[in-house]
Amino acid sequence: MRTDAPSLVQLAALVAVVDEGGFDAAGYALGVSTSAVSQRIRALESTMGHVLVARSTPPRVTSAGEAVLATARQVVALVGSLTPAAEAPSRSALPIAVGADALGTWLSGAIEQAADWDDVVLRVSVEDQDVGHQALARGDVLGALSSLPTAQTGCTATPLGKMRYVPVVSQKLAARHLDAAGHLDLTTCPVLTFGAADELQHRVLRAWCEEHDAEANPPTHMIGAQDGFVTGLRAGLGWGCIHELLLGALPDVGDLVRIPGLPMLDVDLHWHRWATELPVLDRFSTAVEAAAARALRPF
Fold first, then answer.
1. Residue of 12 and 2 predicted with greater confidence
2. What domain count does the chain have?
3. pLDDT in tens, 92-120
4. 233 in a domain, yes or no?
5. Which residue range forms the structural domain that includes residue 16?
């Protein structure tokens, strides 16, 4: 039997270094010196037999560290939930990963609820819904929005509903890319994406090419911010898919119009979280499910 198991303080140091973005900040959060944090990380690495943290700026976990981080986060969170109220920290960190479209529209209801909780520090990272579950697998977060329906080992996946996206283009861009019949020529019209993981536009384009027996390889621009993405669409940088709730909430859509002949795209959304019962995570999961029930299209 292995006797040199990692200690709780070592696991907590690993989580703090990742969450706080550095050894100094981790020491401040844990109430210890930077040197103590470094010693705990080195001891943990010695115990595990691998380098777990790359000493970059900010520090990042190695591939070996990802597996340890996932378990460390669960252990630290679970022990924290068992700590008597008098000894527990005033606020528990709740790291989650969500898509920018969800964060800017329907998920605001859950965020507003969390704002009223005096025992939570919410830490939200933005991840595309096609890869959100990967943040959970890496141990970066406790919960994540994802289009993947299947839960990973040790996690649960709750169906939330469908997010509907509308393909739109500015009128001035469309006017520059008309085919002989006067329709938008998607083989030449530039595309605008939100990031490398954003496959919505190309998913629509591939379906259109199959239907019309065409090939397309248009220029693809990228703006990795929600406001910037809408600005790029309005400016005519490219055509793209925008969430129907966001489109409806815009005070002025300018000259954006729906692209004729392209169907709206529904993306299934699921809430992935650890199966371990943690009061803070349970509470936020309930808020997410309630917000989704009010705003998303049902399956």
1. 12
2. 2
3. 789 999 998 999 899 999 999 999 998 88
4. yes
5. 1-70
